[in-house]
# Entry
Amino acid sequence: MNQYQELNKSYINGVWVDGQDSTQQNMVNPYNNDVLAKVNIASFDQLNEAFEGAKEAQSSWGQDADLRKKVMTNALSYFKENKKALMEMLTLESGSTQVKANLELDLTIGLMEESIKMVDEIGKFEEKPSIIPNKVNENYRLPKGVISSIAPFNFPLYLSMRTIAPALALGNTVVHKPDIQCGLISGSAIAKAYEEAGIPSGVFQSILTTPEIIGDGMFNHKDANLVSFTGSTPVGRQIGKVAGEQLKEVALELGGNGPCCVLQDADIDQAVNAAIFGKHLHQGQICMAINRIIVHEDVYDAFAEKFVAKAKELKCGDPRDPDVVVGPLINEKQVERAQDIINKAKEAGFDMLLEGERIRNILTPTVIGNVDNDSEVAQSELFSPVALITKASSDSEVIEKANATQYGLSSSIFSNDEEKAREYALKLAFGMTHINDQPVNDEPTALFGGMRQSGIGRFGSPYVIDEFTEGKWISVQKEFRDYPF
# Structure
């Protein structure tokens, strides 16, 4: 980690700077609480400086497709060449296991490759027919301007780059605030990559700060043309409220309560294997992770028995160990929150099929059966290796219970009848449904986003192009018109 000690700074207008607020933050390894670095928190004045610089830099950046392509290609090379070091940062800073860290880097690299293809979307036009004689209609895509990017701690690198890479490719400049807990990998490491790639001053800004210092500054700043946020639904509502008052656009990926639907004719072994992965990847700290497993009563006992047996086999411990599946939760508060959920499940009288053990910030897998789908436990986003299994009397009731939540991000359904599964999948009120697979899926060209209280907007190419650009209509009258007056 020593090679990243110099990255404990914000990157503003092409310069690495210490934060000017009096507050200091320790960057802590969640597995053993070792201090990785100390960060001086950036002030509100520095945030203003970043937005002003981004606004000034945007016009020339947006007009130079060759430069954008060159910088983005160089940054991609940096990520590929430094994959091992970046994986280490993910492990030490966010508690990512080796499987998760490798997956996150692969997703990030794939996203960057796809984003480079978007560079040429700016400046070209699509010709449309006109109802007026001798007129030609041209539809253009122009940069949105300055994009405010706010990222979470769970997939810190990928969920940062999911906004940053396409935004920059499409000619925007970006002011980025990572979650301070993972500010090195999801802020400074990205800034370093673009600095090495030759990005002009002001085009990408990384601010290591906290909401306590800057308040609503990331989403009510006058120079922010769009706010892209991944995080909790309550914060998303606040962003939507503030941005809406300013007629500022938003792209929000928020909380989830994803169901894994196991129908009567499902392949139980396949469903168990998928559910184990979809529940325990990154300790369940993923908005798309399985939150509730809803199983037809005819196969409930078989599923629960096999799921518990497999959960007991998962190795827990130091995420640097390549065999470890369950590492630490991000901080002590998250562990205590998970334990509170377990205690509420006990008080409600649900079946404790497997009770986890706390080892510092590690919580070993917990499996709770016969959970009431309407209970507080089932309606909470768990963000931990706590699995809830609910029984349903029919396939239709499985879907009905799955939809009984305010959230609507990702879901999955298991059945040996693909046609039936697709019919039910269309009835699931979630932005994404995966048949015979777990719900933690993302691809550079997939339509990614949630319904209901799980967000607004869509990521993935080409859908993100609509989010991060302005539409512009130009018409050309080839011959003068005759007007009625």
